[in-house]
User: Fold this.
Amino acid sequence: MKWPAIGYARATSLDELWRLQAEHGAAAQLLAGGQTLLATLAFRLSDPKILLDITRIAALRGIAVQDGVLRIGALTRHAELGRDPLVAQHAPLLAEAAPLIAHPAIRNRGTIGGSLAYADPAAELPACVVALGATIVAVSPRGERRVPAEAFFTGLLQTALAPDEIIAAVEIPGTQPTTRSRIIEVARRSGDYAMAGLAARLSLNAEGRVTSPRLVFFGVGSGPVLAARAGAALDGWVLDSAAIAAAQAALAEDLDPPADMHGPPEMKRHLARVLTFRALSPLLRASEVAE
Amino acid sequence: MNEIRTADSLGLSREDLPNSYIGRSVPRPNLPKLVQGRATYTDDVVLPRMLHAAFYRSPHAHARILSIDSAAAMLVPGVVRVFTGADIAKVCDPWVAVLAHLKGMKSAPQYALPLDRATWQGEALVAVVADSRAAAEDGVAALEVTFDPLPAQTDMATALAPGAVVIHPELGDNLAFQRTAVQGDVEAAFASAHKVVEARFVSARHTGVTLEPRSIIADFSRADDTLTVHLATQAPHMIQSVLATQLHLEEGRVRVICKDVGGSFGIKVHVYPDEVAVAAISRILGRPVKFIADRFESFGSDIHARDHVITGRIGVDAQGKILAFDIDDLTGIGPYSVYPRTSAVEGNQVVNLCGGPYDFANYRCSTTVVLQNKVPTCQYRAVGHPIATAVTEGLVDMAAHAIGMDPIEMRRRNMLRDDAYPYTSPAGMRFEGLSHHASLAKLLELVPVDRIRADQTAKRHKGVYRGLGFAAFIELTNPSPFMYGIGGARISAQDGATVRMDPDGSVVVASGVTEQGQGTETILAQIVAHGVGVAVNKVRVVTGDTQNTPYGGGTWACRGAGIGGEAALQSAIALKDQILHVAGTMLQASPATLDIMLGEVVDKTTGTPRISLAEIGRVVYFRGDTLPKDLPREFVQTRHYITKEYPFAFTNGIQACWVEVDTATGMVKVLEHWCVEDCGRVINPMLVDEQVRGGIVQGLGGALYEHCVYDEQGNLLTTTMADYLVPMAAEMPEIHVGHVETPTKESLLGAKGAGEAGTAGAPGALMNAINDALRPLGAVVTEQPFTPARILRALDAI
Assistant:
């Protein structure tokens, strides 16, 4: 299908963006990587009168570490996440997630800010930022506001962003030597949205004891699902087969997945248990594995 | 082998016989054009005064159209006119897609745009014509159409039940066609059988996803009363005839031009109502009108296929000898049979093909073809074959397991002997010559069965489940008029080629078969170069123009090489004879002592060059006065070819598939796949191998991923490439291809079709491989696509 006739303006600074937004109000739609927006325009599912291109706003770009916090600009493309050395060092979960996101052409265009703002429940990055305990930096003419990732995703395709706010960056707390993270998913074909996925981060001390586990599932709810009971079943315990089994069992309470085209809710529950085992079992000590 | 001098047949290397091109992998001459983006697809054609059409499509599976208000649409800038079904019907007749030889078949009259009722979601109802596609879509968005939604008949299982919604009341019921083939005494055979195995198979509704969508430009000229149609099609002459008939034009005043086509797979061999509407609109407006289907509307308007539920029984004796097959097929085809090939052919093929590779005496197979409120189905690559093969081979494997016999041994004991031909199958198919045992032997050279079985056992101890599956198949190619012509369809089973030599010694071949991106033009150039005696790069190929090629059927049912290729070979040989006759006169030598090699007339025994074709061309075309007055000098020859002895040239083959099933997630990974097939003489091994590989990928796609999913109300849920999953390179295995060559004796070329073999066998081989992997766990899957959910259910994991 063809787009309807539509206006376009490029903002080169936040101030210019605020001015354009004030001018066009609800008729304006932000354009960053465009990987979701442009398809919805072609399907005529949304009807903005003007696209405001934010890709040249320097304040939304860049990856840096300051005071032990990794700040990733909202315009960072998925492909950049996958190859940036600071990301690999301070948030390897994101580097590991990048190749799972769609296909190269989409990774070359799509941005982390766009993915988080769209909040697709089957997307990798929302789950990753929740697992990492990240903070979403929202900015508006009123200034900056910091929202914990956990509180950012409020429902199906819904976020805590106010109508005049945009995502400026994601801030990720530093990792410790004891931090372990892992992302795995089950998708029909490589590059597809996952039928179920898990982004996990936890600390594992020298005795093999788990602290601050965060198991965040995607593709199984209305947004990223932090499995609190499964986490509690691991927290403070030595990671062994029994602990993994307890976490798997606790998922029954954590998850209430919807059916989708690929299968019924019970399939997603089953896959979540499988993913829990597969994500955690590589962290088992050698003695456990040998058994 | 038939008597063509090839390097192989003479025991020579290709350097010894430089213009021996048959059996040789030459690069495709049209490849640079395709990969450089310089091809001419229909959408690349831009004509003066051209308009663009977009369609308002039914949001309902079944609804009465109450009103169409186009006032707002007509105010949209750029919109020229809005056409309803009634507007189109003034210049365009409806059609009824039945074939006389499919006895009892019925279908309702179908209009280009329906008059008062929508019968599937996605059916084109109103056309908006504007000066750009975008403006036309704006106009569609501004239309006000009101409906009275009607209950939809979607489930084929209830189509004939009391209380079913009868989609076309004038037909009385939803039964489009029914046929039962019976041979022998099936019940007695089952009664005497050592084992009887029964299973239910499902083949899911899927579609062919072409890179280039359906595309048409219709250009009616009032000045000379001609309709020129640029169309992405497999059958230009068929479309010429249909458009002339429906629009009341003389056939000779309709010209169909089909330059490059970006894939067809059967999708582009049918008459689509929206395309006919475009032709009618051009007829009314006297202006060129372009319509390019987008991907979204393609899913809801391109033909679907393979929506079947089949129950099957097989009976075997204690030695594994197959005694009988009893198969009952049910298929839903949408609200109309598709014109003019009809939608009963797929079910009919299931009846024709089940049990095909095997020697058995008792057969019963029936197909029941019913109407439903979904996208119409029709012929898609390997029509009916993947269904018949999966059912047959699934049953054979189950029977082998039931009597504890190795599946390879089971097949060896039952496959038709290689010396059994000619042979008529229990379904009534006549086989000229097949090579099941030679193909199995060749397959076993390629597949390391012992190593695979050892690996399978070792992996199972580690909880890894791998399986090896086989599927033998037959494939119907080179169709005679028995396929469509005897049923009354104006679809040519004959094809022609005109070969000419120009003054510079270059050669042009014009052929009735068409290029769909698969390499038809390459093999035509090879055959003609071989036949005349010129380098392949001296041959230009013209296809896809009803005004400039001999009349023919086009490309479908694997007939391009076998039918079109033979016509090209015969006309090339005739041209060569004519050239040698003139050369003999010029050289005062007997033509029999001369030959043509790489554009030079040579002394046949010594190979000494005598005169170049360019010199002969110069003399004939510019100094004809120097030649004897009575010397025939027509350097243009046309030959037509049609198969006469057999209704179809059957081919055969066997595939093997090696998979790993992740029993925790239900995911299937295809590790390796093999195919040995016998398409008769191979003209270009590289192209044949790629056809087989592409066909296998399409077969695996249908068996693993592709599914047009509907809800109970008849809403199509898979309308994007994110929901309709096509096979992609990352998931596809290494595919090994081997050949056995049993040329058909009907033609000098000896070629049969090769394009559908891969698709025919792949789903069955994959199903058997998955079930081989799952067997220790007691799970069986027979419902395609083999999704994770279905496999997990079979494993009782969910």
Observations:
- Chain B has a mean pLDDT of 96.
- Chain B touches chain A through 29 residues (CB under 8 Å).
